User: Fold this.
Amino acid sequence: MILVNKSTKVIVQGATGKMGSNHTKRMLAYGTQVVAGVTPGRGGEKVPGTEVPVFDTVKEAVEKTGATVSVIFVPPYGVLDAGCEAIDAGISLLVVITEGMVPQDTAKLVDMARAKGVKMVGPNCPGVITPGETLLGILPGMIFKKGPVGMVSRSGTLTYEIALALSDADHGQSTCVGIGGDPVKGMDYPEVLTMFNNDPDTEVIVLIGEIGGTAEEDAAAFVKQNIKKPVVCYIAGQTAPPGKRMGHAGAIISGGKGTAQSKMQAMKDAGIEVALTPREVAEKVAKLRAQPARK
Amino acid sequence: MPDVQGIRKGRRQLNLYEYEAKRLFAEWGIPTAPGVRITKPEELAKVHLGWPLVLKCQVMSGGRGKAGGIKIVNDLKEGLETAKKLLAMTINGSKTESLLVEPKVSFAKEMYISVTMDRTRGCPIFIAAADGGIEIESNPNVITMPIPYPFEPYVARKLAHNMGLRGALLARVADVATKLYKMFDAMDLDLAEINPLFVNSGDEVLAGDGKVTVNDDALGRQPKFRNDVDKHLADLPERERKSKKLGLNLVELDGNIGIICNGAGLTMATMDMVKNFGGQPGNFLDAGGGSDQEKTLQALEIVNDNPSVNVILLNILGGITACDEVAGALVKFMQKHPKRHMVVRLRGNNQDKAEKMLADSGLKLFPDLENAVKEAVAKSKVAV
Assistant:
């Protein structure tokens, strides 16, 4: 497993909002150690429907609970402020669930996180799950199973679809990281791939990509150079028309760049197994798990 | 060229017209020619900028110059005739909204300068060339420079130096670049572009044309642009415009299978599977995570309105979307449109509840996505 486990202590920024409180309850039900919520002006209260204390500041929450991770649900224009507050308070991993951040804000937050050595997942992401241990974010826990497949994805529900296909075929997951669908973001594929490569619990890596940008092409080159474990990939948007934004801010083919075909070819050239449907991902994982480890 | 993601290619989003971009430039202290916007030919009589004048069609599409959308006129008579023709023009599918009237500018050189977000580096960048012009993508002298945060103007001077500029011209171009970045940052733009930046024989600079794209997600905090959204959505097909207002992501395609899913990646994957199994996607509609009954119903109605669609494939994998909310929408929709061919895949939170709600509807629920897609493809080939 990577990034998080059952002893990870988590605060939720924006925990008193509708989405924040709902998902705080879900995370607690999964077994996540949500130790505090943070909402300025609501210190002394409890996260609605739970016994989790709310603090006014991240600093106080960290001092009182020893939390190291913050899951951010605050509205988009408040994320830069909330993220900087968390970094300043000594949080070492930010998981930004919020959708709709302005790229200018994201770039500033990413810059601050990098400068302070803080890891950041998101924004516009489903979060991170280490099945059987902990869940951070909005992933549906019941779909995931503990096992040896490391997953990294730009998508939300597509990740659930593929996790479902894997779990149904009894290929559980070590950790699943949703890096988010925005063009500017925190962690990208190489950082997560490296962690999976070094993780003794991970045997096979599943990379889920989509049209837009060159992150998948860059990831393919990175895998060829640096990753010893077998990788299966799936790229969404094989039939997407050029010049149209397909839901995610970053999912757009432009000037002939960012097509699924280009990404799939780059993956094949790097020796990565390319699946055409979620079920095929599970089939390719099965094949790779049956083989002795390569290299 | 760095990866600037379709920022310059014709994408339907909040692009400003040239006259709006230039007003913004002027507010931020970037030199522009004095210009007047007219919507009727006779307004030209009230323009007092001397002769000759340049009349420029205000359109959203590119390729305006080549299409004959910019004309030089030497007197009022010629101006009136030309303005009438230009105002009636449609250029590459985009109707002329108005004309921008400017004095003819004499220049010695054209440069290019823009600020955009580089998604690979995760920071803003300058893109510039000392020999600008239209074909910036294929210009070998284009240079780029990541913009560190916090920004200080020395970065712009470094850029101008790398462009090969020296002395007064370096200082003037750096000043324009500095203002362009500050505008890009404060106004939440995806793109701030000056192309061309005119340089006259006295090394004075002037923005000849401008392209400004506002980030969609910024509209909530940029009231300056918010009221303009309708005007700028004018080029969108009706159902796509309607969807955008409802917060649904719709892209219409040529096929007959209407696709509705929750989540962008899953919607694309469903489209791909439809095609892989021999069907033709009629649209992409991402209803988003956490869609409630009302939003799902709106999504169903919009896809139903597309006359090319003969089957609706609804694929919901409930993470934050509750299946019973979706089922509620389905019950209402089918009461209104009992003859519509539907294939529904529903799995996730409150699935049991959803199944009970739909038990009387005669609608078969598919827990497996591949089977649902195959069923939709089969139906699309026989349905009328």
